[in-house]
Amino acid sequence: xxxxxxxxxxxxxxxxxxxxxxxxxxxxxxxxxxxxxxxxxxxxxxxxxxxxxxxxxxxxxxxxxxxxxxxxxxxxxxxxxxxxxxxxxxxxxxxxxxxxxxxxxxxxxxxxxxxxxxxxxxxxxxxxxxxxxxxxxxxxxxxxxxxxxxxxxxxxxxxxxxxxxxxxxxxxxxxxxxxxxxxxxxxxxxxxxxxxxxxxxxxxxxxxxxxxxxxxxxxxxxxxxxxxxxxxxxxxxxxxxxxxxxxxxxxxxxxxxxxxxxxxxxxxxxxxxxxxxxxxxxxxxxxxxxxxxxxxxxxxxx
Length: 302
Hints:
Elements: H1 5-17, H2 20-27, H3 31-45, E1 50-53, E2 56-59, H4 61-88, E3 92-99, H5 101-106, H6 108-118, E4 121-128, H7 131-139, E5 145-150, E6 158-172, E7 192-196, H8 201-212, E8 219-224, H9 231-237, E9 240-244, H10 245-248, E10 257-260, E11 267-275, H11 282-301
Parallel strand pairs: 3-4, 3-5, 7-8, 7-9
Antiparallel strand pairs: 1-2, 5-11, 6-9, 6-10, 6-11
């Protein structure tokens, strides 16, 4: 049985009003057009759907059975169309976000607030990991976007900078280096460090800076994959670290780390969103737009 969905919608209105003329007025169609609609449905089901009652019409038993199914099908079609429209507008679907350690501290509150308010029907999954690992996940299609370090010359992915970040040398406030009037890069050559693993961009940059000044790379007493999440441990250890200035400003637990102001070991970088270059799902496009317009203000207001 081949039935036009429009015929079912028209049939539902005719049945509810019990009158062809009234249905025609409501649907902005002619009575002959609706009569043809009824005849097509009757031909499809092989039985009469209406019988006359006074000046109007009423459903037969077959017509009543068809009405129940028509209502269900029409509702399913309406809901399906709404879901597709929401998906096309980025308001539905699934959004898979990878988030680096620094951005998990800086941006996740903003992400949750923005998504809850603007994309309530989108299912969100968040994976926290190192940026180089998340890039591999993005490359293989396992996530849709990365909140983390971005570069201007990314040849593989599309970068969307959201805020600038400064990475600095830090140690506990009682560290002996703070008793010196001036601290140089050479003073740090023999210190013990807590450092990111060697694949991390900030670790690569720091090692290169030491080499530039004719010094061996910093001595890593501990290597970690989430420095921002371990600040209290680092402060208790008495070791030196290389950490985001944004993260230092958000310390909540004593003992606190303090910046050692050494200009030649101060790294500037950009944080933001990384996505694929083409064929992005509507939810991802919507997410990028929202983050670019709202997230920086959210972070700076904290």
